[in-house]
Structures are given as C-alpha cells and as structure tokens.
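ok so I'm stuck.
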Amino acid sequence: MNNNIPEPDPTWDYYIEWHKLIKAKAQLDKLIEFISKVENATEETQKILVKHLHSISDTLESI
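replied:
not stuck anymore, here's the structure
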C-alpha cells in the first residue's frame, strides 16, 4: 500500500499527519488510475474527478 514506505511508531509526534498524507496519496493514486483509463471526458467522468479531488483536498486540509 505504501510503496515500501515504513510505517512509523504510532507514538511519533507526526504519526497522524503521516497517516493522513498516506491516505491522500492512496486517494491520488486511485484517481490517477481511474483517469488514465478514461479516453474521452464526459460530464460523468468530470463529476467523478471533481468529487475525488475534493476528497483529496479535504484530507490534505485536515493536516
């Protein structure tokens, strides 16, 4: 899941931030995979793209 990124000790001061960044990275990887399969933009794919971008943004803003 983390592309060989070691999981830190949960008592580390930045553990929560690290976890949120890993979550945002996973969301972004999923979105990149989705969009790479889309040949032509449609209203529906645009809605999906925007929805996922907002989710990623919300995750990052929570840090």
